[in-house]
Design goal:
1039 residues, alpha+beta, 32 helices, GTPase activity, nucleotide-binding, GTP binding, Ribosomal_Su5_D2-typ_SF
Length: 1039
């Protein structure tokens, strides 16, 4: 049935008859009037960002699970994404035909297998629900504890229940008797809910359909003698009702049509079911054609899925208050802390009203590129007879004019311009209306993800988009250019779209990069950012084959960045244009888009740029042959130690404990720094709390400038928890009081490295001062050039000494900082000019000076009051930055250095016969198997492994080739891991000499990675190219 545009527009106004849903899967899928906006999303883990953009615009989701493979890693990911967005899922168990045709299961075995799949899916949902309830319980406990502190003397009774007993979770789970499960085989065109069979058999057997509905799925059987449905089919060895009444019929259908090809039995079945099958289908040589013809009439999959969607998934007006609050609470801000005007908009969300008075609220989840030919205004429409005759006349006139030679050149130019215009890409915003009616030509506010709705309070009361307003950060005003109805690949023009509908908006490419919120109210908050499961980790440098086409590449990469929600485009310090993607498949798609759609030029792509991190570890206790280092006799390799010492220049002192002391070139300051490895838990904690560290840094910055920053109570509680966790993980003598002495985090002021202030007598403001603002504490003073020390630390952690990669998990403890600042300024300047130190960090220095201008003025005034004349941002500041950076690097080199590699978790499903070949590929690529388990009811194994990102390129293809396509891996970025081997290792003990030989030239994985990175960056690589070279001698001439 073809729906006309007018019919769809009429349905758009009935909010209760709209269903917005997406298909989430990792496999193929193919009364009242309802308008269904169906968004399909790719199943590969690299494209989980596309799932996130789809899920945000929907109210429900169809989860498609393979009946053979069951719950795969990607199924768990999409269930979690649906849970996080508070959308209601329904389940389709697809490919049941494979249980019959491939696995040759009996109907009883298939029933057990389907029960297990349902249990697995419900187990994932149950774990998500449990974690949510426990979190809420923990929050309540914390609140109760804080309110009961004053009554601590009274007797307290602790309630040990976790809150799970009181919470109703019956609506969460999938169960066929609740109607939210469809059993299907999309390829054969059939699918059903047990409601269909319950109604069918209630007429035949005279049992109420409500009774059958409750007993068709479960441990019930039919007692033929008593004509009753009894419980306990499994214990009594009876056939369950679902097998007897449902599966046996389907199995006998496949047996007659596909396996035995029994024409007589097929005709009997067709007649008894009252179906009409065309004679050509009955005669067809492929039995699947006949099967599809019968099943698509008997149990049409479309009818089963659509009836489930209409009954079980909510309409836009049924959006929950919890989901609205979650969407409106940006970052860590709670809904209660939003401005009052903003909180009032919650009612508009819940009403989902299409009145003219309701504020327009639209969320754009992504921008997608459309060829200009596909836009409705550029499409050819059927011509009337009058238009045809007019065009005929025009064609005759042009033919006459073409005879004139002087017209030909102009014609060619105009045709060329038209072709260029046609080939241009246009961007359409993929969006959903949550409130009001959006109209063509309407003026609206476009709110970026970082927009702060409290800034709207400064605007005059009752202002609208039409007024001339002062500029507010991350807010733009624009006019809605065009509205589109998305009909598959087709776009249809619309004049207005009421709330609850999914739509496309044209002309927004200048205002929206990837996602945004559109509203007529400036008090509207930006929606919570989309959560992406895949992390962009794979980088390549891109350049055009012909340098003259560089502008086209730059434009193409800008368009790609806008079109792909997960891809990132950046320009490195070296000038390279770098593309960052989620994985190998995603990278290939992005490069194809760049070549064929956005840049339309030939491009050269570098080898993947693998990210590494540099760290230090505790001195190892075992050598490379697993012998205890303490009990061994060192071999005479003193020359090696001397070489290491020669690398440290004059003026740098390194003591036996690893403390490095360095003096600036003008001899006016001395800095002593020690590098200490951070515990793994602390590094992970710092990585997970980047946003909190940023907030703390921002507060400190405001405090230095004598301003105040309002921080929500929830964030302060999170910062307090973060501090407590840090203290609990930094235990032991050397970490005593370390958390209170944290000076800064780095690199970029929020990274996984710490600068500690262990200078005697220097008590500076704490990084935790946002927690201490309520306490009456004496104000600590900041020393002059404090910022230079921090800047030096930031630069040192941004690029380490091994291969200029960022540091990770390193703590730099500043133990001495002596300065002689009594020298007059003029003399100091002359000293600086004579010494002419190399200053690679001028840009960074100027940025710091802009940021802390007020701070520098305050420092100058303090210095002048003290009788000195110190310029905190003069030449001496640069020398101190360089000295601090070098001191940190030498302190780092004084400890055992290691590289850290980015790791993928790899989940592979494979059969037993290909396990050996799969393990061979994994071990060849430095992979490590963590877990191997057999999937119940199948011959499939699930293998969980970790694999370095550096070794992952071509891994999926190689596994598929070696296993003949029977194993397919899913790679997701997981964590950073220290590479065990020392990149600077040389044999030092007798056992190592015996084992590795004097040259010790066996493969060193860490050294290989280090040299590859240094070579790519153009740094010096120490390697022997020719060894033991001799002149070639021939037999004829002895030269």
């Amino acid at each position: 049935m073809v729906l006309h545009l007018e019919k769809i527009i009429a349905l758009q106004k009935k909010t209760s008859c709209i269903r917005n849903l997406c298909i989430l899967a990792h496999v193929d899928h193919g009364g009242n009037e309802y308008l269904i906006n169906l968004i399909d999303s790719p199943g590969h883990v690299d494209f989980s960002s596309e799932v996130s953009t789809a899920v945000r615009l929907c109210d429900g989701a169809i989860i498609v699970v393979d009946a053979v493979e069951g719950v795969c890693p990607q199924t768990q990911v999409v269930l979690r994404q649906a849970w996080l967005e508070n959308i209601r899922p329904v389940l389709v168990i697809n490919k049941i035909d494979r249980l019959i045709v491939e696995l040759k299961l009996t109907s009883q075995e298939a029933f057990t297998h389907l029960q297990k799949i349902l249990e697995q899916v419900n187990a994932v949902t149950g774990s998500l629900f449990t974690s949510k309830v426990l979190e809420e319980r923990a929050e309540k406990d914390a609140e109760a504890q804080s309110s009961c502190t004053e009554n601590s003397s009274a007797d307290q009774v602790y309630d040990w229940s976790a809150g799970l007993e009181e919470t109703d979770d019956s609506d969460l789970y999938f169960s066929p008797d609740r109607g939210n499960v469809v059993f299907a085989s999309a390829i054969d065109g059939w699918g059903f809910r047990i409601h269909q069979f319950a109604e069918m058999y209630s007429q035949k057997m005279g049992i109420r359909s409500s009774v059958l509905l409750k007993t068709l799925w479960g441990d019930f059987y039919l007692n033929a003698k008593a004509q009753k449905i009894m419980k306990g089919a499994q214990s009594k060895g009876k056939k369950p009702l679902f097998v007897q009444l449902v599966l046996d019929n389907i199995w006998s259908m496949y047996d007659a049509v596909v396996t035995r090809r029994d024409k007589e039995k097929v005709e009997k079945m067709v007649t008894s079911l009252g179906l009409k099958v065309m004679s050509r289908d009955l005669r067809h040589s492929d039995p699947k054609v006949l099967l599809s013809a019968i099943c698509s009439q008997w149990l049409p999959v479309s009818q089963a899925v659509l009836s489930m969607v209409c009954e079980k998934l909510p309409c836009p007006a049924e959006i929950s208050a919890e989901r609205v609050e979650k969407l409106m609470s940006v970052g860590a801000r709670r809904f209660d802390s939003l401005p009052e005007k903003t909180q009032e908009l919650k009612k508009a969300f819940l009403d989902c009203s299409a009145d003219d008075t309701a504020p327009v609220i639209v969320f754009v989840s992504k921008m997608f590129a459309v060829d200009s030919k596909a836009l409705p205004q550029n499409k050819q429409r059927p011509l009337t007879q009058e238009e045809i005759s007019q065009r005929r006349e025009l064609a005759r006139q042009r033919h006459a004019e073409r005879q004139a030679a002087n017209q030909s050149a102009e014609k060619a130019l105009s045709v060329k311009a038209a072709v260029e215009e046609e080939s241009k890409e246009h961007f359409v915003a993929f969006a959903r209306v949550y409130s009001g009616i959006i109209r063509k030509g309407q003026k609206v506010f476009v709110l970026g993800p970082k927009y702060n709705p409290s800034l709207a309070l400064r605007l005059p009361e009752g202002c609208s988009v039409a007024d001339v307003l002062p500029s507010i950060p991350h807010m733009a005003c624009c006019t809605v250019d065009r509205l589109y109805l998305l009909m598959g690949r087709e776009l249809e023009d619309l004049d207005e779209v009421p709330s609850g509908n999914v739509l496309g908006i044209g002309g927004m490419e200048e205002f929206i990069l990837k996602s945004a919120t559109i509203s007529t109210s400036p008090a509207c908050p930006p929606f919570t950012p989309l959560s992406f499961e895949a992390t962009p980790i794979v980088r390549v440098a891109v350049e055009p084959k012909h340098p003259s086409e560089m502008p086209k590449l730059v434009r193409g990469m800008r368009l790609l960045n806008q079109a792909d929600p997960c891809a990132e485009v950046l320009i490195q310090e070296t000038g390279e244009h770098v593309l960052v993607t989620a994985g190998e498949v995603h990278l290939q798609r992005c490069l194809d888009d760049l070549r064929e759609r956005f840049a339309k030029i030939e491009i050269s792509v570098s080898e993947p740029i693998i990210p590494f991190r540099e760290t230090v570890i505790r001195p190892p206790k075992m050598d490379m042959v697993n012998e205890d280092l303490g009990k061994q006799q060192k071999v005479a390799v003193i020359h090696q130690v001397k070489e290491e010492q020669m690398k440290i220049p004059e003026g740098v002192q390194v003591d036996s404990t690893g403390l490095v002391t360095l003096t600036t070139s003008n001899k006016m300051a001395t800095v002593g720094v020690r590098a200490i490895p951070l515990p793994e838990e602390v590094t992970r904690l710092l990585e997970d709390n980047v946003e909190l560290i940023r907030t703390m840094e921002q507060f400190s910055l405001f405090a230095w400038e004598d301003k105040t920053l309002d921080i929500n109570q929830k964030i302060l509680e999170n910062i307090q928890d973060f501090k407590v966790k840090l203290e609990s993980n930094l235990q032991g003598h050397k970490w005593r009081g370390a958390v209170e002495h944290i000076w800064a985090f780095g690199p970029r002021r929020f990274g996984p490295n710490i600068l500690l202030n262990n200078i005697e007598g220097y008590r500076r403001p704490s990084v935790w001062q946002c927690l201490e603002r309520e306490k009456e504490t004496e104000r600590a003073e900041i020393r002059d050039f404090d910022n230079s020390i921090v800047s030096g630390f930031q630069l040192a952690t941004l690029s380490g000494p091994m291969c200029e990669e960022p540091l990770m998990g390193v703590c730099f403890s500043v133990e001495t900082w002596d300065m002689k600042i009594s020298v007059p300024q003029a003399q100091q300047d002359s000293v600086d000019e004579d010494s002419q130190p190399s200053e690679p960090n001028n840009d960074d220095q100027s940025e710091r000076s802009d940021m802390h201008e007020t701070s520098s003025n305050r420092s100058r005034s303090r210095a002048e009051a003290a009788g000195g004349s110190v310029d905190c941002y003069g030449p001496f500041s640069g020398q101190l930055i360089a000295a601090m950076k070098d001191t940190c690097r030498y302190a780092f080199q004084a400890k055992p250095q290691r590289l850290m590699a980015a790791m993928y978790t790899c989940e592979i499903m494979a059969t037993a016969e290909v396990l050996g070949r799969m393990y061979a590929v994994l071990s060849k690529r430095e992979g490590r198997v963590l877990q191997e388990e057999m999937k119940e009811g199948t011959d499939m194994f699930i293998i969980k492994a970790v694999l370095p990102v550096a070794e992952s390129f071509g891994f999926a293809d190689e596994i598929r080739k070696r296993t003949s396509g029977l194993a397919s891996p899913q790679l997701v970025f997981s964590h950073w891991e220290v590479i065990g081997s020392d990149p600077f290792w040389v044999p030092t003990t007798e056992e190592e000499y015996l084992h590795f030989g004097e040259k010790a030239d066996s493969a060193n994985q860490a050294l290989k990675y280090r040299n590859a990175v240094r070579r790519r960056k153009g740094l010096y690589v120490e390697e022997k190219l020719v060894e033991h070279a001799e002149k070639q001698r021939t037999l004829s001439k002895n030269k």
